[in-house]
């Protein structure tokens, strides 16, 4: 299901990140600490009552060299491009400023709904500050207080009222949805063109109808696929398209809709910090992952090069130890089509269900080989394990006391599960619960 997207815009210091964090609340990612991957969040899932949506804090998209007004202009443009509903945030303590008027003028151009919020209305006495904001011509201002968590319910009611009916392009269960993510210039578009055997024609968007609707359907060897568009693939020449945060935003959107994510690296430039961050998002998203080393034609090789590169990839991407690595060249098309059997396999593994009886044999056998940890004289007892979900495969392990389950033991169990079943290419999740 594609969720509606909400973006928060407004000049600096009005409280965008405060409100973003309030709305997002505490969200747990499947892996907490991947070195080099921790980031300040600008895009997250969120919910309000029965509504699920994604939210962008455009203030987090920094456009380093741009002057102040140009920055907020571009942030507003990103909101108009990416969101279904825009929250325009202002500061009630300062009243309407010239910068607010400037943002409002940009937002007049959009057909998307804009909800005006006036922040820092920390107590009811301050409500008279609101009247000033009618002059912005964007309808009724909603008073809120990010610090005190006031007014957010009414604001989100209004936002949800404006959610569009999203007509999701429905694909059959058997269709594999995949995306290519990676830094600019690693060769994502070239790879897609190589898959298709011709240049992909990119239809320009019609204003107001853009829902990242650039999925490309593709069949190979009897299997149907949909390639999901990502950053860098529809170059329209906007300044912000080359910024890191923007490409992250687009990558996160593509990851969300994919079953399988191809993390594309560039052999010519080697592995960079940004590659690790991007790969981290695919992993956190719980998607099947393949590491694709592109531009393999462009480097000097001998019989050791591939092994050395594999070793280096494994060192840099330890959290993706389950991901197969494929060396390709979009330019010469070498091994490009060899990717598809790998995509099929990891997609199957990502959706695999294992039998409880066999799973429990594996767990019992593991405990017999490597006794569960003890703490202060107490030993972890594992009673039973069961698979509760697919995509990614998720297991619940019932124990006497969950606090006794250490990370290293969980890792041991994961490895034993991986040795026993073919989960290549997919993360797996283990949840420890007290048996009640
Ligand atoms: P951003 O630049 O728009 O993302 O703004 P921030 O979220 O970083 O907030 C800017 C400052 O305003 C911070 O010092 C916040 O603590 C403060 N702030 C945010 N919301 C409120 C509020 O509702 N009331 C008051 N008094 N201060 C707030
Ligand atoms: P994107 O930004 O990730 O979509 O990257 P592009 O597909 O636009 O490719 C960036 C540049 O790298 C272009 O000049 C391509 O011609 C070049 N390129 C892409 N794939 C290969 C490859 O396999 N080998 C070589 N030598 N160049 C490539």
TrEMBL record:
The keyword Endoplasmic reticulum does not apply. Residues 4-167, 176-351 form the EngA-type G domain. PROSITE patterns: G_ENGA (PS51712). GTP 1 binds at residues 10-17, 57-61, 119-122. GTP 2 binds at residues 182-189, 229-233, 294-297. Keywords: GTP-binding, Nucleotide-binding, Repeat, Ribosome biogenesis. The keyword rRNA-binding does not apply. Belongs to the TRAFAC class TrmE-Era-EngA-EngB-Septin-like GTPase superfamily. EngA (Der) GTPase family. GTPase that plays an essential role in the late steps of ribosome biogenesis. Associates with the 50S ribosomal subunit. This is GTPase Der. It comes from Psychrobacillus faecigallinarum. The gene is der.
């Amino acid at each position: 299901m594609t969720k509606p997207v909400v973006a928060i815009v407004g000049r600096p210091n009005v409280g965008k990140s405060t409100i973003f964090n309030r709305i997002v609340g505490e969200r747990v990612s499947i892996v907490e600490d991947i070195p080099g991957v921790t980031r300040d969040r600008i895009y997250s899932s969120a919910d309000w009552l029965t509504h699920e949506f994604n939210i962008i804090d455009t203030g987090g998209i920094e456009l380093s060299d741009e002057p102040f007004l140009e920055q907020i202009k571009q942030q507003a443009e990103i909101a108009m491009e990416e969101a279904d509903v825009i929250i325009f945030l202002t500061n009630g303590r300062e009243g309407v400023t010239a910068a607010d008027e400037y943002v409002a003028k940009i937002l007049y151009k959009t057909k998307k709904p804009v909800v005006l919020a006036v922040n820092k209305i920390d107590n009811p006495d301050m409500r008279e500050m609101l009247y000033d904001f009618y002059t912005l011509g964007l309808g009724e201002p909603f008073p809120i207080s990010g610090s005190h968590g006031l007014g957010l319910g009414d604001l989100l009611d209004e936002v949800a009222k404006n959610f569009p009916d999203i007509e999701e392009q429905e694909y059959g269960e058997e269709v594999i949805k995949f995306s290519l993510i990676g830094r600019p210039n690693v060769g994502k578009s070239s790879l897609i063109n190589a898959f298709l055997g011709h240049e992909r024609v990119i239809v320009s968007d019609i204003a107001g109808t853009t829902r990242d609707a650039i999925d490309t359907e593709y069949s190979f060897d009897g299997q149907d696929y949909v390639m999901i568009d990502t950053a860098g693939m529809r170059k329209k020449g906007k300044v912000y398209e080359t910024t890191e945060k923007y490409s992250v935003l687009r990558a996160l959107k593509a990851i969300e809709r994919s079953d399988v994510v191809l993390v594309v690296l560039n052999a010519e430039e080697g592995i960079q910090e940004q590659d690790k961050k991007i790969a981290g998002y695919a992993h956190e998203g719980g998607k099947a992952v393949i590491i694709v080393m592109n531009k393999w034609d462009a480097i000097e090789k001998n019989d050791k090069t591939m092994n050395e590169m594999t070793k280096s990839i494994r060192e840099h991407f330890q959290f993706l130890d389950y991901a197969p690595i494929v060396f390709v060249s979009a330019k010469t098309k070498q091994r490009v089509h060899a990717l598809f059997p790998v995509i099929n396999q990891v997609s199957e593994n990502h959706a695999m269900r294992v039998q409880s009886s066999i799973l429990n044999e594996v767990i019992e056998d593991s405990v017999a080989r490597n006794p569960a940890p003890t703490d202060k004289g107490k030993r972890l007892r594992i009673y039973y394990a069961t698979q509760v979900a697919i995509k990614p495969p998720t297991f619940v392990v019932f124990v006497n006391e969950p606090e006794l389950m250490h990370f290293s033991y969980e890792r041991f169990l994961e490895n034993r599960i991986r040795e026993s079943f073919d989960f290549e290419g997919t993360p797996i999740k283990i949840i420890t619960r007290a048996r009640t």
